[in-house]
Structures are given as C-alpha cells and as structure tokens.
Write a structure and sequence with these properties.
Helices cover about 55% and strands about 5% of the residues. With about 450 residues, the chain is mainly alpha-helical. It has a two-stranded antiparallel ribbon. Strands 3-4 form a two-stranded antiparallel sheet. The two termini are about 45 Å apart.
Length: about 450
C-alpha cells in the first residue's frame, strides 16, 4: 500500500528517505523559499505583480499537491506568515489567480492522501497545514471552493485517519500551535468554510436558496468538534472562538426545527442523522436564547390548546392562555412558593401573568420582570439562610446549615426555570458545579 511520511524534522530533501506515494520535487524546500522571494519582490516592485502572481500561483499549487513538501514547514508561524502574505498579494485578479491554483492544489494533494495509509506520525502534520489555506473564504470578492468540494475532501480525509494518526494529529495541534495560532490557523478557517456553506439567500418570491456546498456542513462540524475537544483539554481557545456567524444568522425557525427533530429522534436515529443543534458550541449565547424563546413559545401554545373547552350552554369556546399569579408584595416569597407548590404542572407551562394585589395595571411583561427581580433579591440573599458567602460574594453557594428542607431548593429550581421559560434573565451566580450537574457531567 501507499504511505506518506516525513522521517525527521531536519530541513532538506536528503532527510526524506522513506518511500512516498507521489513524485517529489528535487529541492523540496526551494518551493517555500521561492514563494517568499516572489512575495518580497511584489511588495517592493508593483510592475512585476502579474508575472510574480502567476509564479506564486504555480508554486502554491505545486506545494499543496505534494503533502510531503508541506510537511517540511515545521514551524506553524512560518506557514501562517507566508499564507497571510499570499492572501494580500496583488490586486483582485492576481489574488483570484492564486486562489484558483490553491483550490486545485488542495484537491490534488488531498486526493493523493485518500489512497494512502498514513502509518507514520509525521505523515499527518500536513493536514493541519492545509486548513489555513481555506482562509481565502474570508475575502468575499474571491471565488473559492464554491461547491465545497475541497473542504469536503479535506474533512472526509481527516475523519478517515486511523486512531494512531489521530493521536499524532492531536499532539501536533496541542504542542506545536500556540493559543493564538490554534485559533487563527485551525479554527477560524474551518468556521469561514462553515459560514459559507450555511449561507441562505432569499429571492423576490421568498424562496430560500441553499449553497451547493451545504453538503459539507456535517463533516466540517465533525472536524470542528475534534478541535473543540482539543481546545477544552489544553485550554487553547475561548468558547467564543468557536461561535459560527453563519449558524447564528440562520432563521431561528430552521434551528428550532432542527432542535425539535433531534429531540424526538431515537438514539439510533440520532447516530444516523446530522443535527446542528447537537453541537451547541457553535451557537452564540444570543442564538441559543432565540431558540429557547421559540421553544418556550411553542410549548406555551400547546399547553394553552390542550386546555381549550367548549361551553355548550354559552355556545362559546373557553381558553385560559395564562398561568395567573396574584401576589401580595408584603408576602412575596411565601405566597409565591405556596402557589407554585399547589399549581398543576401543565398550568405552569402556560405564559406567566403576574399581578400585585391592590395594584391596577395589565402585565405586558414589565410586571413579570419586576416580580422575578424582587423574588430573586429575597431568595438569593445570603440572609435567606439558603446560601453562604463562604466562597465570596460573587457565588451563590449552598448553605449546609440552612433550616430549609430539600423541597425548598426544589421549588427555587422551579422558579428559576419558570423565569427562563418566560424569557426573564436573573442575576444569579451559581457555582459551576450546578451547571455541570444540570448537564449530567
């Protein structure tokens, strides 16, 4: 079988004596050096831009179609610097010529890898190097991998490597790349590709048109999941570094439909089908909030419709769309906890409408927010006995010496959930252990 490997970290073609499955240039290092030289000439003399651009395009294609050559660039900083200069080289026509060549080179190089057994750890380093070249997606004036063939081929290749190769890839990504380079070279280019693939346009007839590259979305997300796990393990990125602008710009109805289908799917169906919402690390907090709001609104509507009754004597349909809470301000906590405890669970799932006894006015949302604010100030105050400031004022930690029973904490959990269900955010600072427990971790 074919195999691709680099035997040592030394520079030069003589250090590569293991067998490769493709023909290699005689002086493998000269390609990189020549590209850098041409870039310097272009930056100092604009008159040679067209000729130099064509040469850079030719050499870039040659570099990418030979993974063994790409493996020689040991230092990610060197590769990052070169690609950034290529991305800015010349005018639009020159950059397009280079982009076309890079797309061809990517496909040729990746296609050669698909038929190879990457049995040596050094063989997979080129896969990390390939990713940065998808940064051409960031220039909206450049036509690059419109059908998503190159990014699909790349992701399909990396997902098909054996476990030993994955471990080597993991080690290269976490050891060779600094925190800054990990995001710039491995995460952002994949997010750019994902954003392009999830783009939806709407014509004058309100018909949605999806990008031809949409087929690549599942494999891009799968690779991003790998890097997200690496980033969490080695602290190489912030959660926000993985938020996808393309996913966040999708219609909330489409995302909710994806979430709904995922929830009703069996474990077997989930393993066979792709659900975008199964990868929440891609969703920004605002995007998640919008999905949860829609989910709550749909559930509220369902609960309201289940409670519809027909009054034959009055020949009319009766419906109660709200869960009513009529509370005295002076006994806010006691009355609220009592009524929540006595309430039918299906009623709590309706939209909440709060009124304070003796006060006129219709709750259009403001009274509900005030209600939860006042309630949280009392319930989450350290003097309530439920919490302790042993670990600082910024954390609501459980007080082991409180006089409440477990039902008290359970009711507080219900109230907390009720606030989120009605799109009200509370200024509460639970310890991370609470959220980990909620997620089953």
């Amino acid at each position: 079988g074919n195999c691709i490997a680099v035997a040592s970290d030394q520079i030069g073609s003589k250090s590569l004596q293991r067998q490769f499955s493709m023909e290699m240039p005689e002086d493998t290092r000269s390609i990189v050096d020549t590209i850098n030289g041409l870039l310097e000439e272009m930056e100092s003399d604009g008159s040679i831009e067209q000729h130099a651009g064509q040469e850079i395009a030719k050499l870039s294609e040659e570099l990418l179609q030979h993974p063994s050559v790409l493996n020689l660039i040991i230092n990610p900083v060197e590769l990052e610097t070169m690609i950034e200069r290529i991305l800015c080289a010349g005018d639009l026509a020159t950059r397009q010529t280079i982009a076309n060549a890079i797309e061809r080179g990517l496909k040729l190089g990746l296609d050669s890898l698909r038929g190879s057994r990457m049995i040596y750890p050094e063989a997979v380093r080129c896969l990390l190097s390939y990713i940065k070249f998808f940064s051409f997606r960031r220039d909206e004036n450049i036509v690059f991998d419109v059908r998503g063939e190159a990014i699909f081929l790349f992701c399909d290749t990396i997902l098909g490597i054996p476990f030993e190769a994955y471990r080597a890839l993991h080690d290269f990504a976490t050891n060779l790349y600094s925190r800054k380079l990990f995001v710039k070279m491995l995460v952002r280019p994949l997010l750019l590709a994902l954003n392009a693939c999830t783009k939806v346009t709407t014509d004058e007839n309100e018909v949605h048109h999806f990008e031809p590259s949409r087929q690549a979305v599942p494999v891009i997300v799968a690779v991003l999941s790998w890097f997200y796990a690496m980033a969490e393990e080695a602290n190489l990125a912030e959660p926000a570094d993985f938020y996808s602008d393309g996913v966040s710009k999708m219609d909330v109805e489409s995302l909710f439909e994806d979430l709904y289908n995922m929830k009703k799917a069996s474990p077997h169906e989930r393993s066979k089908n792709f659900f975008l919402c199964a990868h929440p690390f891609l969703l920004s907090p605002g995007c998640k909030r919008n999905i949860l709001q829609m989910e709550s609104q749909v559930e509220m509507f369902k609960c309201m419709m289940r409670d519809v009754n027909y009054d034959a004597s009055m020949s009319q349909i009766k419906v109660q769309p709200f869960y009513e809470l009529d509370i005295e301000r002076e006994h806010l906590v006691e009355q609220t906890l009592k009524k929540i405890k006595q309430a039918d669970p299906k009623d709590i799932r309706k939209r909440l409408r709060v009124s304070f006894k003796g006060e006129a006015g219709l709750d259009a949302g403001g009274v509900t927010k005030e209600f939860f604010q006042l309630l949280s100030e009392e319930l989450f105050d350290v003097h309530s006995g439920l919490w302790t400031d042993k670990y600082g004022d910024d954390v609501n930690w459980f007080n082991t010496d409180n006089t409440w029973d477990d039902k008290g904490y359970e009711l507080i959990g219900v109230l907390f959930g009720l606030a989120l269900y009605n799109s009200v955010l509370l200024d509460v600072h639970f310890p991370l252990a609470v959220y980990r427990k909620s997620l089953g971790l």
